[in-house]
Each structure stands twice: as C-alpha cells, then as structure tokens.
Amino acid sequence: xxxxxxxxxxxxxxxxxxxxxxxxxxxxxxxxxxIRALAELLQDTPDMDPARRAEFVGxxxxxxARLNRLVDRLLDEARAAAEPxxxxxxxxxxxxxxxxxxxxxxxxxxxxxxxxxxLVPERVTPVDADPDALKQVLLNLLSNAxxxxxxxxGCVEIRLTPEPGALRVEVADNGPGVPEGDRDRIFARFDxxxxxxSRPPGTGLxxxxxxxIVEHCGGELWLESTKGSGACFAFRLPVRPESRSPGGGQPxxxxxxxx
Amino acid sequence: MTKVLIADDEPNIVVSLEFLLKRAGxxxxxxxxxxxxxxxxxxxxxxxxxxxxxxxxxxGYDICEAVRADGAVRDTPxxxxxxxxxxNDVARGVGAGANAYxxxxxSTRALLATVQDMLA
Lengths: 259, 120
Hints:
The complex is a heterodimer. By secondary structure, chain A is of the alpha+beta class. Helix content of chain A is 47%, strand content 17%. Chain A contains five helices and eight strands. Chain A has a six-stranded mixed beta sheet with strand order 6-7-5-4-2-8. Chain A has a two-stranded antiparallel ribbon with strand order 1-3. In chain A, helix 1 (2-44) packs antiparallel against helix 2 (50-82). Chain B has a five-stranded parallel beta sheet with strand order 2-1-3-4-5, with helices on both faces. The radius of gyration of chain B is 13 Å and the shape is globular.
C-alpha cells in the first residue's frame, strides 16, 4: 500500500515537472522562432528596404533580450528551489519572528487601507528552524494575503497558537478565498491561479518554497479556505524536543495580546 | 492573387510570416485569436490558412475541426504550426483535419515551399 502511494506521489511529481518543463520549452521556443525566421528573411532578401531591415534587426535584438531574461529567471528559480536543502536549524522564538514579520509588512497593509491584527501568546517554546528561511515564509504568506485583499475594508489576522508539542501559525485574509479547483495547484511550482484576471504578481514559487522550508524544519503547511470567506494559510512546527519535558512544555498562553 | 490567412498570437512571428508570404506574392490576412480566425475564414474564404496550434480563445485543433464541419469552407487547405514537434501532436493535427504540419522554430524556406506545394 505504502509502495503504491509513494509510486503515485512520485508519478504525480514527475508529471508536474514534465508540465513545467513543457511550458518552459514553449516560452523559449517562441522567441527562437521569431529570431530564426527573421534572420533567414534578412539573409534571403538582399534588397530589403532599410527601414524594414532595421525593424527586423530591432525585433531580433528584443527577442534575444527576452531569451536572456527567461534564462536569468530559470536560474533564479533553480537557485531558490535548491535553497531549503541548506537551511540551518537553531532554536527560534517564533513569537518574535511573527511580530517582526507583522511589523515589516505593516506599511504594505496600511498602503492598501487594510488592517493587520496580530494574536500571539505572552511567550512560546522555541522551535528548531532557520530564522531567515522562516521569516521568508511569514513574509510570503503576509504578502500573498495583502495581494488578495478587497479594495476596501481589507483585514488580515496573523495568529500564533501553542498546540501539544507544536506551534501553529495562521495567516487569514478577508479576500475572495481560493477556488476549490485551485487548492492543490497553488502549491505547485509556477502556478499563479487559474484566473488570469486575478493573477497576483510574482513567479508562482512562493507557496511551494514556503511549504518546502516548513517541511524541511519537520513541520507542515496547508491551506484552510472556503471560497467567499477569505483564505487562511497555516503551518505547524514541532517545538524543540528538550523543551517538551513535563512542566516546561506548554507555555502560559493566558495573556494573548492583540496589537 | 491568392489570399493566405496567418493566424498566430505572437506578433513577432506574424511579422516574419507576413513578410515571407507577401514577398512570395500572396495577399495576406492576419488574425490573432481563435474566434476571429474562424470568422475570417468564413467571411474571406482564404485559399490557405497558416494556423498556430496554440492560440487564445480556441486552439488550432478546434478551429480545424470547425472548418472541416462547415460545408461552405470545409475544403480550405490548413497548414498547422505548432511549438511542439512530438508525434502525438502531429497525429492530433492530422486527426483534426490539417493538411500539413510545420513545427516551430520553422525554416521560412521550408514553410514557403510547403505553402507553394499546397497551392500548386
């Protein structure tokens, strides 16, 4: 059974990789097609009008620049994808990180006329993680939330909640939510949603990389969402094993403060 | 002068095809999406269509099938352009009723020779 599940998972991962490779090949081939055709026409038309010649050369150079940008982007993405493998693991105060991420993005929300609410306990048990990578996850979830907000009355809530042996972080917005059909796709590389009209800016790598970082730290990241009532992305990280001893395990979360 | 319709959504590829076919003496029409292409085939009755397989609105295979199902324009020769060179895409194009197949990046010389053959 497990073998079969793993084979299925592997097969779907390979299919996903195939699809993204096919898309990349198409993106590369389009400028190549224009370059090849125009270069041949220049070669085969010695008496070409100078204005036309200049136009064709201009297009060829523009298409070469487009190819260059594509190659740069592919390299950046390959680098980004390789990063989580190198994350270090140190004790991290997730409370401080959440407050820091909320502070960093506050201006982003205020610029959109939106409010951000932070709900954290007084203190929490540390988790084992790479603080920089984890902050990237928080910033990514917050900036996704900012992009999803309605034009007026936008509101984002970031919550940190202790659970037995773990800490849970939730980022909830009051945007349109994620359509049923997109819920698995959004964690796939290069996916930016099925509706081009509402497509957010970015490369479509934020969520898959965030998930990879959290998983690398032994946690999980998922979407809790229903269309029409906003999106809520959540992740859970195990607290440090030595902190789970009786008595010192669950922190006092009576004094949750809202800021 | 034989009318040839170029249906492709990539402006720089259209520039090259338009120049190539005009230089060869054809009267060139251009469309950029599926529905516009089908309307133009019905209204202008081109002698040949150079049809991109991947266009917004309606893809080349669907257009091909729609043309073959329409008694008034069913005999229009169709040269399908695709970015993929794989056998199953060629089979799909032929199945949909394309008369010839050229893969991107195409050679302008080979493409022109195919067009001339088809119109001979």
